[in-house]
Amino acid sequence: MYTLSGVSAGAGVGAAPSLTISKTKNTNSTDEIFAYDVETEIDRFNKKSSRFAQKLLQIVNPAKDSVRDLLGATAGFITSADNKIEILELIKRGCSASMAARTVLIENLDNFFKRETDIKNDKDEILSLLNEFIRTLEHSKADEIELPELKEDVILIARTISPAQLLSLETKFVKGVVLEEGRDSSHLGVVLRELNIPAVFGVFDATNIKSGTYVIVDSNAAVVIVEPPEDMTQGILRRQDSQLFQINDESLLNITLGAAVGAISPNDDVEKVTANGLGLLRSEFLFLSSMTEPTEEEMTQRFYQIFSKVKKNAPLTSRTFDFADDKKPLFTVITDDDGPLKGYGAGVGTALLKKEIRAMLRASVGQEITIVFPLITRISEKDYLFKLANDCQDELDAQKIPHGKMLISFMVETPAAVLLAPAFATNSAMMLLGTSSLAEYASAPCPADSAFTPVLAKMIAMAAKAAHEAGITLGIAGRFAARTELLPFFYKMGVSYLVTGTYNIQKVKGVVERLNLEHDIQPDFDIELYNKIVNCYTGAELSDILNSFSY
């Protein structure tokens, strides 16, 4: 028996034989033959060939005209219609983009030189450029991780995995996750907590544990116990306290408290998850493991399975797709090449957003739904998305398709959004502050600070003032929403909508109940506190301010 330590990414204890994933599909990526998905490989080739050709053509002021001719000829060869047809045909027959491009381009090179006699002496240079291009098509090791089909309980051990890769597994068999890398505040951590899967990240040399070795993942203590004695295993599992304090008097809640939901499968007990309403559905997590882009009908059915279980008058709030950072789906996402959503931080384009908005509206028939747009950083984005949502509603009306009543909200989760908050508040039903992302930006370029910092407090205060002046609901989401010691501060910023994970709901409810019973505290924007926050600069100053009114 031995113990490894790391960083806790959840709570609880899991025990099962290990399944260690430490190898990729192919150690020699240039010999990669079979594609993961035909459409993905086609999109990979189309995009990267176009970008590489543009890169060659945009090289300015080469030393000689002959160099300019060489670069132009290479760009033309890579993107020629004949070569493209052959490459795409090989991909459709099962080749990866890199292997198809290597096969066609290298084989056709001699014929190319017969036609372009002026550059036949530059064969080595052109071959070098072609190899450089082909390398851009190869998959990284992270892409090539091979995930098995699970049929029995395991502790999953890997260097790293993405949320999409985890959700592509039969997660009911995953009793714990151990990673050599990872951050507890990552989106993977969020998914694991929502699925109640114990996890420990940052465990040195974890992948040296052989598959089949019995392992305990104690997320409460942030340790991994390898080959524990049977009596220890039973003792640790028995000590788990799964009983949560329940609150029965909902009248004691003077703020809306809803669950943040993401990683929920069709087989889950949806009514249990949505018992406190749907505070925020992070919709992308429902589809990260899809191999192809979901259709409007597929999204409508999936949303309806969840929305229909939300009680009347309980919150029903859903965020549109956010594929930023590590939330990359298995299917290819098409983004806008121009227009207001070009470069949109959520990594999604108009076509897919339109399908999703229509699906959310159709799935919420007979209910009121607040649709939240994430990662807005420009007024042009806000105006465009507002119009897009209303256009979707008008289309459904014209087609006489029943739908829910729509309210529109925007997430404030970047410094740009904080500074533009007064404009974002216009015509919005609610302003929802994403404290996890705000904390990341508040610490940049350093890793996010787990402490509640003056910079983060200032950004929350500035956005809160904008919401107050616009007379709209102010909500708090993200990892700081569950920090119960901050509840008095949130109240005094006018927060009346709080979103946290289902695993934190009862804890937060208990604190809210106590505050209301003992202090009759009400959500109300405090301009005096705002002035103190924007003029404080050190942790000690902020601590003094918060302690002056904490209960």
TrEMBL record:
Identify one Pfam family in the record: PEP-utilizers_C
Domain called PEP-utilising enzyme mobile: residue spans:
151-220
Q: Which GO terms describe its biological process?
A: phosphoenolpyruvate-dependent sugar phosphotransferase system
Molecular-function annotations in GO: kinase activity; metal ion binding
Q: Which UniProt keywords apply?
A: Kinase, Magnesium, Metal-binding, Pyruvate, Transferase
Enumerate the cofactors the protein uses.
Answer: Mg(2+)
User: Which residues does the UniProt record annotate as the domain PEP-utilising enzyme C-terminal?
Assistant: 253-515
Which branch of life, at top level?
Bacteria
The record's listing under InterPro entries reads: PEP-util_enz_mobile_dom, PEP-utilizing_PTS_enzyme, PEP_util_C, Phosphohistidine_dom_sf, PtsI_HPr-bd_sf, Pyrv/PenolPyrv_kinase-like_dom, Pyrv_kinase-like_dom_sf
Query: Which protein family is named in the record?
Result: Belongs to the PEP-utilizing enzyme family.
Q: Which named protein is this? A: Phosphoenolpyruvate-protein kinase (PTS system EI component)
Q: State the organism of origin.
A: Succinivibrio dextrinosolvens DSM 3072
Classification from the root reads: Bacteria, Pseudomonadati, Pseudomonadota, Gammaproteobacteria, Aeromonadales
